[in-house]
């Protein structure tokens, strides 16, 4: 069916991270979704990890951009540049153009979906197909999505948290809320500014979250704190402060509460049969946010349903898009 050299590629174009999967090879690339450009010439200066280090540290001549916001394309040109770079890096410049499947959050508009397909084509895809991210995440987490049984997945990314129940190959109920990693980082920045009068950067906030963050305020009382550096708002000078684990837990508890509301609402919308299946099989957490300490326990407590973190939470969506490549002929005919 395919001409020699045609390759199928799955892409997780996330707000925080982009991953590329090549059929037959597996995951070949994991990089932050960040691009640094020269502000005068518009030339791309760095992409991925190197560009992420520049965030918040650029001189006037360079700007570091996260082209995806809230799970969708916010800066089309930069998204194309990033995809082109990553496809080149993953596949090399020779060979036939690849067919690509890309994950998009559930509930994106037709225009947003179109933009993703166009961006992939302009970046060098022979053709592109989209797959709903929670579905891809469920496939990647190994849930029995094609069977007549209800599965539930919660994908906590940088821009959105996507919640879905799935049965017989389709999404039964879903929610996509703009409450995820970025909102958690912002909440930490705000909290530190208000409590300590110190301004910390986004990257520092993210590091605090990963190092000492907890979804459970009570449990955080027994966790170790750490230090953070920022700018003292009173003196205007750099300052190092001690941050307690309970500070971070306190800062982020409202975002966690919203995620729990979305999960409960999604459960309420399913049929009793699917709700019963979910009680039996539990809820599976994917995405980077699934790694937040005590998140699984807090969700289990609030929903009275067992909760599991997927084995490789950051890889679930791209593995799912990779699996979807096996049925790309079906997608092509749609
Ligand atoms: P996206 O699909 O939107 O690109 P990812 O699934 O790659 O997002 O997850 C990235 C998000 O997960 C970021 O907001 C990051 O800060 C967060 N994250 C990564 N590791 C952890 C951790 N250990 N604890 C809490 N959040 C984490
Ligand atoms: Mg994601």
TrEMBL record:
<dbReference type="InterPro" id="IPR043129">
    <property type="entry name" value="ATPase_NBD"/>
</dbReference>
<protein>
    <recommendedName>
        <fullName>Cell shape-determining protein MreB</fullName>
    </recommendedName>
</protein>
<dbReference type="Pfam" id="PF06723">
    <property type="entry name" value="MreB_Mbl"/>
</dbReference>
<dbReference type="GO" id="GO:0005524">
    <property type="term" value="F:ATP binding"/>
</dbReference>
<keyword id="KW-0067">ATP-binding</keyword>
<dbReference type="InterPro" id="IPR056546">
    <property type="entry name" value="MreB_MamK-like"/>
</dbReference>
<keyword id="KW-0963">Cytoplasm</keyword>
<keyword id="KW-0547">Nucleotide-binding</keyword>
<dbReference type="GO" id="GO:0005737">
    <property type="term" value="C:cytoplasm"/>
</dbReference>
<comment type="function">
    <text>Forms membrane-associated dynamic filaments that are essential for cell shape determination. Acts by regulating cell wall synthesis and cell elongation, and thus cell shape. A feedback loop between cell geometry and MreB localization may maintain elongated cell shape by targeting cell wall growth to regions of negative cell wall curvature.</text>
</comment>
<dbReference type="InterPro" id="IPR004753">
    <property type="entry name" value="MreB"/>
</dbReference>
<feature type="binding site">
    <location>
        <begin position="158"/>
        <end position="160"/>
    </location>
    <ligand>
        <name>ATP</name>
    </ligand>
</feature>
<comment type="subunit">
    <text>Forms polymers.</text>
</comment>
<keyword id="KW-0133">Cell shape</keyword>
<comment type="similarity">
    <text>Belongs to the FtsA/MreB family.</text>
</comment>
<dbReference type="GO" id="GO:0000902">
    <property type="term" value="P:cell morphogenesis"/>
</dbReference>
<feature type="binding site">
    <location>
        <begin position="206"/>
        <end position="209"/>
    </location>
    <ligand>
        <name>ATP</name>
    </ligand>
</feature>
<feature type="binding site">
    <location>
        <begin position="15"/>
        <end position="17"/>
    </location>
    <ligand>
        <name>ATP</name>
    </ligand>
</feature>
<dbReference type="GO" id="GO:0008360">
    <property type="term" value="P:regulation of cell shape"/>
</dbReference>
């Amino acid at each position: 069916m395919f001409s020699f050299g045609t390759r199928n590629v799955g892409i997780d174009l996330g707000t925080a991270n982009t991953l590329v999967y090549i059929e037959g090879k597996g995951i070949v690339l994991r990089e932050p979704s960040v691009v640094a450009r020269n502000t005068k010439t518009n030339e791309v200066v760095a992409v991925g990890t190197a560009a992420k280090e520049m965030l918040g540290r650029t001189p006037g001549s360079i700007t570091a951009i996260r082209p995806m916001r809230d799970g969708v394309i916010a800066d089309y040109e930069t998204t194309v540049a990033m995809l082109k770079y990553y496809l080149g890096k993953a596949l090399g410049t020779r060979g036939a153009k690849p067919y690509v499947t890309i994950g998009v959050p559930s509930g994106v508009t037709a225009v947003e979906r179109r933009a993703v397909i166009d961006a992939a084509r302009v970046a060098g895809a022979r053709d592109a197909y989209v797959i709903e991210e929670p579905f891809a995440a469920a496939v990647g987490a190994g849930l029995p999505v094609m069977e007549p049984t209800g599965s539930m997945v919660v994908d906590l990314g940088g821009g959105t948290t996507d919640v879905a129940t799935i049965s017989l190959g389709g999404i039964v109920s879903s929610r996509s809320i703009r409450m995820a990693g970025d909102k958690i980082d912002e909440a930490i920045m705000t909290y530190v500014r208000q409590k300590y009068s110190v301004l910390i950067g986004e990257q520092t906030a993210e590091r605090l979250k990963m190092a000492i963050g907890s979804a459970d305020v009570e449990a955080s009382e027994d966790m170790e704190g750490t230090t953070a550096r920022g700018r003292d708002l009173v003196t205007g000078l750099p300052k190092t402060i001690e941050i307690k684990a309970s500070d971070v837990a306190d800062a982020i508890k409202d975002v966690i509460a919203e995620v729990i509301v979305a999960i409960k609402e999604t459960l309420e919308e399913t049929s009793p049969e699917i709700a019963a299946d979910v009680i039996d099989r539990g809820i599976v957490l994917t995405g980077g946010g699934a790694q937040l300490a005590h998140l699984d326990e807090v969700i289990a407590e609030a929903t009275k349903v067992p909760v599991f973190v997927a084995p490789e939470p950051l890889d679930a969506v791209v593995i799912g898009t990779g699996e979807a490549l096996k049925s790309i002929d079906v997608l092509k005919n749609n």
